[in-house]
Amino acid sequence: MLRVVQQLCEKDLLMTQVKGTYDSDFFFEHGYFHLRPSNTHFLRNVEEATQTFHNLLKELSGGGLRTAFKNKDGKIRHWGVSNFDTDDMEELWGLDGDGCATNQILYNLSRRGPEHDLIPACRKRHIPIMAYSPIEQGRLLRHAALKDIASRQDATPAQIALAWLLRQDGTIVIPKSASIARVRENRHSASVQLSDADIAALDRAFPPPKGPRPLEIL
Ligand SMILES: NC(=O)c1ccc[n+]([C@@H]2O[C@H](COP(=O)([O-])OP(=O)(O)OC[C@H]3O[C@@H](n4cnc5c(N)ncnc54)[C@H](OP(=O)(O)O)[C@@H]3O)[C@@H](O)[C@H]2O)c1
Q1: Model-level pTM?
Q2: Which domain-ending residue is among 58, 84, 101?
Q3: Are residues 58 and 124 located together in one domain of the fold?
Q4: Mind listing the pLDDT tens digit for each residue in 60-103?
Q5: What residue owns the CA closest to ligand 1's atom 41?
Q6: Domains in the chain: how many in total?
Q7: Domain around 147
């Protein structure tokens, strides 16, 4: 597997998924290197996956985890994790995971569970959250509250849903679209300014969590 990953690094192939051993997937996305644990035997596997990750980086850079990131000639500039819940992050931080650049998680108006403890924990460590499926694969866009705010703001429901995420510190969104017009539309969500009344309306329609909830995965 190491040879395959090394070749991918050298050819700078992005968005390529490589099936790893240890019940984990390693994949590249926009220059980020993600470590994604399976949800079975998780505690044991995160340790094993981290060890595999260390070995991989040693092979690629001739050094350890930190050396690889400090080495300007290294093939991997940044790495992140995906679908790590709070306890997984704590375990990672205990396993030399200080260099983790982001945690890519399912987070949108209809999936606010991470606000209870995962997002505050990552924020404390200055680790940005990368919100995947930020418009719930399009399902959110039919919601009346989003449509109302969109018409008041002269925006679209997708822009409102994305602006709600982007107004939060340390939050990245990765909406997927096969349409250039929609990619542009989504890009412009960065300039939508939600009012306090908009935020309150969204809180009523999509209430924040009252207690801890396991991280959801799509
Ligand atoms: N780490 C993980 O476990 C994980 C899991 C799931 C997804 N992801 C990543 O997250 C990214 C996005 O997630 P996703 O594709 O699941 O969901 P998403 O971005 O919330 O929604 C994508 C869907 O919404 C539509 N869409 C996009 N912009 C729109 C707009 N402005 N108006 C109306 N419809 C719009 C797209 O259709 P069109 O293409 O036809 O525009 C597509 O059907 C993907 O790139 C994926 O790699 C990661």
Answers
A1: 0.80
A2: 101
A3: no
A4: 555 554 554 444 555 455 667 778 889 888 877 776 556 677 88
A5: 177
A6: 2
A7: 104-218
Is 15's C-beta closer than 6 angstroms to any atom of ligand 1? no
> Of ligand 1's atoms, which has the minimum distance to the CA of residue 177?
39
Q: In what order do the strands lie in the sheet with 24-29?
A: 17-19, 24-29, 32-37, 78-82, 103-106, 129-132, 171-173
Choose the residue to mutate in 102, 133, 139 for probing ligand 1, maximizing ligand atoms within 8 Å of C-beta: 133
User: Ligand 1: does its nearest atom lie under 6 Å from the Cβ of 82?
Assistant: yes
Q: Cα separation of 103 and 83, whole Å?
A: 7
Does residue 95 sit in the same domain as residue 176? no
Q: Where are the beta strands (DSSP E) in the chain?
A: 17-19, 24-29, 32-37, 78-82, 103-106, 129-132, 171-173
- The reply to whether 89 and 123 lie within a common domain is no
- Of the candidates 117, 120, 130, 70, which has an alpha carbon nearest to the alpha carbon of residue 98? 70
Query: For position 198, what pLDDT does the model report?
Result: 98
Atom of ligand 1 nearest to the CA of 176: 19
Pocket probe for ligand 1: among 16, 105, 132, the residue whose CB has the most ligand atoms within 8 Å is: 132
Q: How many angstroms separate the CA atoms of 41 and 127, rounded?
A: 25
Q: Hey, whose CA ends up nearest to atom 21 of ligand 1?
A: 137
